[in-house]
């Protein structure tokens, strides 16, 4: 059964109108009413237009007959696809680059949901998920009924679904936005990944505000080079956002500045629109003074550790104000955010050793997470880390080096090996860890559960044990199979077994 959320009410758009909207020739003959759109043949609902997209592995047109059998009434495809799909006998809109128009088409079919929704979009190499939760908290404080679409979960008012990816394909995204609107959502915050921008997944979305956390290196398995990665992210700032908010502390973002760009600086640069100083307190109770336009000064705070979360909080406030929230409400709403799943999350194991789970799986994130965790430790900082298989391989040694520089004891283990050889991945992470020349002790432990057990066995009162890389993930993909695995549960269980549980739970 197709699982992606859709609006309950589907009015439908005649195919001829869609052709006119895309300024392409309407197919002669039948003019079916299109009531939904999908790019996946297995997800076709009767009345759908099936977008038969050219892919890295297959051409969607190979599945046009399946789509027709499931009730599709029309196609969108490219010239190669039109030939391949001819036998399916469906009227087709043919364009050179279907992904480039798919968002506008889906938006039209689903009633242009972003014309009446406040939509806040966050991009950047690290901090999208964290910032999205802070923004959502501020939108709630302002009285909005909220939605959130991102890496961890998808919430459309009272409808909660698992997130398959950080940013859904345009077809699914516009259906979700329409479903959110139908359920009374007035403001929605979403993460916008570089894959999404490169592949047109946010086409047709009007953003009230777009924000950019920072630019680092990632996903070079997908993007041709760093320039290509930057160009993908830059697309969010090509005019599709009413307000643009950029991190002034990251010089890489300067080429995107325009006359009306809003900027923020956690480093306290007074030339930014929003800046912070007087950062005080540590751990899960950071306070700072927020400075804004026209001499505005407000006491502010964020209940998350690390200087990077002060930056995320500033971005959240700046975006909220851009979305029409008054600054005091925005500040209070951001401060009220109680935590982000799998991001510097304390595990449920009271005792002399703090256990923390974090999603850092790129170099800059590891540096930021370990700096934050250092402040939580009155003893040593013990870090368990691996790297994903079938993903950007170049980042592995850098991840190892960052762990060796930031922690006292590093256990290099497995993340999601996927179809790659775990021993090879560990060797690449270890090579970077050793090459860093840091004083940290470095161990290799095959198997994540074994590594967590070993980290806890080696811990002493006052230490922090941090598991990096998997955060909120509920499974571990080994040899192409996903096994249930939750770092938070594993670490809490190991800590309780070693140190007991004052609350009496076992
Ligand atoms: C690299 C990438 O993003 N690839 C996306 C791309 O896949 P592809 O080009 O390989 O597609 P393909 O398998 O050749 O198939 C071609 C077309 O035929 C269709 N098809 C195929 C088979 C079939 O039986 N029926 C059918 O309809 C497919 O839906 C597709 O439209 O188009 C597919 C749908 O059109 C996406 O599902 C797929 O995402 C894959 C699964 C993926 O893993 N993406 C990840 C890397 C991703 O997007 N990550 C980002 C960033 C996360 C982060 O920041 O860390 C995210 O936003 O989640
Ligand atoms: N502003 C930031 N700068 C650097 N590191 C950060 C920042 N915010 C969060 N991090 C670190 O990066 C990790 C991932 O953070 P988060 O999930 O918020 O980012 P993301 O951009 O959504 O990541 P992903 O693309 O992996 O989903 C966190 O667990 C934390 O260690
Ligand atoms: N969305 C990211 C998540 C990576 C998380 C990490 N645990 C890994 O498996 O590398 C990706 O698919 O690249
Ligand atoms: Mg994310």
TrEMBL record:
<keyword id="KW-0067">ATP-binding</keyword>
<keyword id="KW-0961">Cell wall biogenesis/degradation</keyword>
<feature type="domain" description="Mur ligase N-terminal catalytic">
    <location>
        <begin position="34"/>
        <end position="109"/>
    </location>
</feature>
<dbReference type="GO" id="GO:0009252">
    <property type="term" value="P:peptidoglycan biosynthetic process"/>
</dbReference>
<comment type="pathway">
    <text>Cell wall biogenesis; peptidoglycan biosynthesis.</text>
</comment>
<protein>
    <recommendedName>
        <fullName>UDP-N-acetylmuramoyl-L-alanyl-D-glutamate--2,6-diaminopimelate ligase</fullName>
        <ecNumber>6.3.2.13</ecNumber>
    </recommendedName>
</protein>
<keyword id="KW-0547">Nucleotide-binding</keyword>
<dbReference type="GO" id="GO:0005524">
    <property type="term" value="F:ATP binding"/>
</dbReference>
<feature type="binding site">
    <location>
        <begin position="415"/>
        <end position="418"/>
    </location>
    <ligand>
        <name>meso-2,6-diaminopimelate</name>
    </ligand>
</feature>
<feature type="domain" description="Mur ligase C-terminal">
    <location>
        <begin position="342"/>
        <end position="471"/>
    </location>
</feature>
<keyword id="KW-0132">Cell division</keyword>
<feature type="binding site">
    <location>
        <position position="473"/>
    </location>
    <ligand>
        <name>meso-2,6-diaminopimelate</name>
    </ligand>
</feature>
<dbReference type="Pfam" id="PF01225">
    <property type="entry name" value="Mur_ligase"/>
</dbReference>
<feature type="binding site">
    <location>
        <position position="193"/>
    </location>
    <ligand>
        <name>UDP-N-acetyl-alpha-D-muramoyl-L-alanyl-D-glutamate</name>
    </ligand>
</feature>
<dbReference type="InterPro" id="IPR000713">
    <property type="entry name" value="Mur_ligase_N"/>
</dbReference>
<dbReference type="GO" id="GO:0008360">
    <property type="term" value="P:regulation of cell shape"/>
</dbReference>
<dbReference type="Pfam" id="PF08245">
    <property type="entry name" value="Mur_ligase_M"/>
</dbReference>
<dbReference type="InterPro" id="IPR035911">
    <property type="entry name" value="MurE/MurF_N"/>
</dbReference>
<dbReference type="GO" id="GO:0005737">
    <property type="term" value="C:cytoplasm"/>
</dbReference>
<dbReference type="GO" id="GO:0051301">
    <property type="term" value="P:cell division"/>
</dbReference>
<dbReference type="InterPro" id="IPR036565">
    <property type="entry name" value="Mur-like_cat_sf"/>
</dbReference>
<keyword id="KW-0436">Ligase</keyword>
<keyword id="KW-0963">Cytoplasm</keyword>
<feature type="binding site">
    <location>
        <position position="469"/>
    </location>
    <ligand>
        <name>meso-2,6-diaminopimelate</name>
    </ligand>
</feature>
<feature type="binding site">
    <location>
        <position position="201"/>
    </location>
    <ligand>
        <name>UDP-N-acetyl-alpha-D-muramoyl-L-alanyl-D-glutamate</name>
    </ligand>
</feature>
<dbReference type="InterPro" id="IPR036615">
    <property type="entry name" value="Mur_ligase_C_dom_sf"/>
</dbReference>
<feature type="binding site">
    <location>
        <position position="391"/>
    </location>
    <ligand>
        <name>meso-2,6-diaminopimelate</name>
    </ligand>
</feature>
<feature type="binding site">
    <location>
        <position position="41"/>
    </location>
    <ligand>
        <name>UDP-N-acetyl-alpha-D-muramoyl-L-alanyl-D-glutamate</name>
    </ligand>
</feature>
<comment type="similarity">
    <text>Belongs to the MurCDEF family. MurE subfamily.</text>
</comment>
<dbReference type="InterPro" id="IPR005761">
    <property type="entry name" value="UDP-N-AcMur-Glu-dNH2Pim_ligase"/>
</dbReference>
<dbReference type="Pfam" id="PF02875">
    <property type="entry name" value="Mur_ligase_C"/>
</dbReference>
<feature type="binding site">
    <location>
        <begin position="166"/>
        <end position="167"/>
    </location>
    <ligand>
        <name>UDP-N-acetyl-alpha-D-muramoyl-L-alanyl-D-glutamate</name>
    </ligand>
</feature>
<keyword id="KW-0133">Cell shape</keyword>
<comment type="function">
    <text>Catalyzes the addition of meso-diaminopimelic acid to the nucleotide precursor UDP-N-acetylmuramoyl-L-alanyl-D-glutamate (UMAG) in the biosynthesis of bacterial cell-wall peptidoglycan.</text>
</comment>
<dbReference type="InterPro" id="IPR004101">
    <property type="entry name" value="Mur_ligase_C"/>
</dbReference>
<keyword id="KW-0131">Cell cycle</keyword>
<feature type="domain" description="Mur ligase central">
    <location>
        <begin position="122"/>
        <end position="319"/>
    </location>
</feature>
<keyword id="KW-0573">Peptidoglycan synthesis</keyword>
<keyword id="KW-0460">Magnesium</keyword>
<dbReference type="GO" id="GO:0071555">
    <property type="term" value="P:cell wall organization"/>
</dbReference>
<dbReference type="GO" id="GO:0000287">
    <property type="term" value="F:magnesium ion binding"/>
</dbReference>
<dbReference type="InterPro" id="IPR013221">
    <property type="entry name" value="Mur_ligase_cen"/>
</dbReference>
């Amino acid at each position: 059964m197709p699982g992606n959320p859709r609006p309950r009410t589907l009015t439908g758009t005649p195919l001829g109108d869609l052709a006119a909207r895309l300024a392409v020739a309407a197919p002669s003959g039948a003019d079916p009413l299109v009531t939904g759109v999908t790019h996946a043949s297995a997800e076709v609902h009767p009345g759908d237009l099936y977008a038969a997209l050219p892919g890295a592995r297959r051409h969607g047109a190979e599945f046009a007959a399946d789509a027709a059998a499931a009730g599709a009434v029309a196609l969108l495809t490219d010239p190669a696809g039109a030939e391949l799909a001819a036998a399916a006998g469906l009227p087709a809109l043919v364009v050179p680059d279907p992904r480039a128009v798919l968002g506008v088409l889906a938006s039209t079919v689903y009633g242009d949901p972003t014309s009446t929704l406040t939509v806040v979009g966050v991009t950047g190499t690290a901090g999208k998920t964290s910032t999205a939760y802070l923004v959502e908290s501020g939108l709630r404080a302002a009285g909005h009924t909220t939605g959130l679409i991102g890496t961890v979960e998808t919430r459309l008012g009272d409808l909660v679904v698992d997130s398959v990816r950080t940013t859904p394909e345009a077809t699914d995204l516009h259906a979700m936005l329409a479903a959110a609107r139908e359920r009374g959502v007035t403001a929605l915050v979403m993460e916008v990944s570089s894959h999404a921008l490169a592949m047109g997944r946010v086409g047709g979305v009007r953003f009230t505000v777009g924000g950019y956390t920072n630019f680092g290196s990632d996903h070079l398995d997908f993007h041709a080079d760093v320039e290509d990665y930057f160009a993908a992210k830059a697309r969010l700032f090509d005019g599709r956002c009413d307000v643009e908010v950029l991190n002034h502390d990251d010089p890489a973002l300067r080429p995107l500045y325009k006359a009306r760009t809003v900027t923020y600086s956690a480093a306290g640069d007074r030339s930014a629109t929003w800046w912070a100083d007087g950062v005080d307190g540590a751990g899960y109770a950071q306070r700072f003074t927020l400075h804004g336009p026209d001499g505005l000064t407000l006491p502010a705070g964020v209940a998350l550790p690390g200087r990077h979360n002060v930056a995320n909080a500033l971005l959240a406030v700046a975006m909220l104000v851009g979305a029409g929230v008054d600054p005091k409400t925005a500040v209070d709403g951001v401060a009220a955010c109680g935590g982000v799943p799998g991001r510097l999350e304390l595990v449920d194991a009271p005792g002399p050793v703090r256990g923390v789970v974090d999603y850092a799986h790129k170099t800059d994130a590891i540096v930021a997470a370990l700096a934050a965790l250092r402040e939580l430790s009155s003893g040593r900082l013990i870090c368990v880390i691996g790297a994903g298989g079938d993903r950007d391989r170049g980042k592995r040694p850098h991840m190892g080096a960052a762990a060796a520089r930031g922690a006292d004891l590093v256990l290099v283990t497995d993340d999601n090996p996927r179809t790659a050889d775990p021993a090879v991945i560990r060797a690449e992470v270890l090579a970077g860890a050793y090459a860093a020349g840091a004083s940290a002790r470095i161990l290799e432990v095959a198997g994540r559960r074994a590594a967590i057990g070993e980290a806890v066995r080696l811990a002493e009162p006052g230490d922090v044990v941090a598991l990096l890389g998997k955060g909120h993930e509920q499974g571990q993909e080994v040899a192409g199979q996903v096994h249930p695995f939750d770092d938070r549960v594993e670490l809490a269980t190991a800590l309780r077994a070693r140190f007991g549980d004052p609350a009496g739970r076992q």
